[in-house]
Design goal:
Oligomer: single chain
Radius of gyration: 30 Å
Shape: elongated
Number of strands: 0
Largest sheet: none
Length: 191
């Protein structure tokens, strides 16, 4: 089976490009243009990775691919041929984590949309005037099920723990003074 990216050729191209970047840095010149073959490989890796079952269902897959390509181009010059001879794995890892960051951003945006909808005046008026049957119909037509909304909210708003109030200022002084008085009484009782 032929691979869609020739890792040996990509490695050779990367070695050439990294050495050109090093020369440009020494001369104080801007980084050279990325060769077409490297750009094509990055594009193919990002597209194929987005087709995996854990990424294919997202509606913002194009944004994920774009983020992956952008991150690869940003960190392209950091590839070290002395440490690794596998640029395919290098780019795949960069793209994978770019996808995960995009998913987190989109989940956070969904949470913000949900919270703003929840707290809007329209929402309050809508739910105040709905009968139980209308509310059930609304939930049935809503693309996000109630359980998924609750999970989303819990992701960004973990349950708050009740902390014991620590005394501050004068309360702390009074509490410490009260403890000293108790210790003195205990000492006098034991004598």
């Amino acid at each position: 089976m032929a691979h869609y990216v020739d890792n040996k050729k990509l490695f050779e191209e990367m070695c050439t490009y990294v050495s050109l970047c090093a020369e440009a840095k020494e001369c104080g010149d801007p980084r050279p243009k990325v060769p077409d073959y490297i750009g094509l490989c990055i594009y193919q890796i990002a597209n194929r990775l987005s087709m995996r079952p854990n990424f294919i269902g997202y509606s913002y897959r194009d944004e994920m691919v774009g983020d992956g390509i952008e991150n690869c181009l940003t960190y392209l010059h950091n590839f070290n041929p002395e440490k690794s001879k596998n640029p395919f794995a290098y780019f795949t890892t960069i793209i994978y984590y770019a996808f995960l960051r995009r998913i987190q951003k989109e989940k956070k945006q969904l949470y913000i949309k949900h919270k703003s909808f929840e707290t809007s005046l329209i929402d309050q008026t809508l739910f105040d005037t709905m009968t139980d049957d209308e509310y059930k119909d609304y939930v049935a037509m809503n693309p996000i099920a109630d359980d998924r909304i609750v999970d989303l909210v819990n992701m960004f708003e973990p349950p708050k723990e009740v902390k014991a109030k620590t005394p501050k200022g004068i309360e702390k002084f009074i509490e410490e003074e009260g403890k000293d008085d108790e210790h003195e009484r205990d000492d006098s009782d034991s004598n």
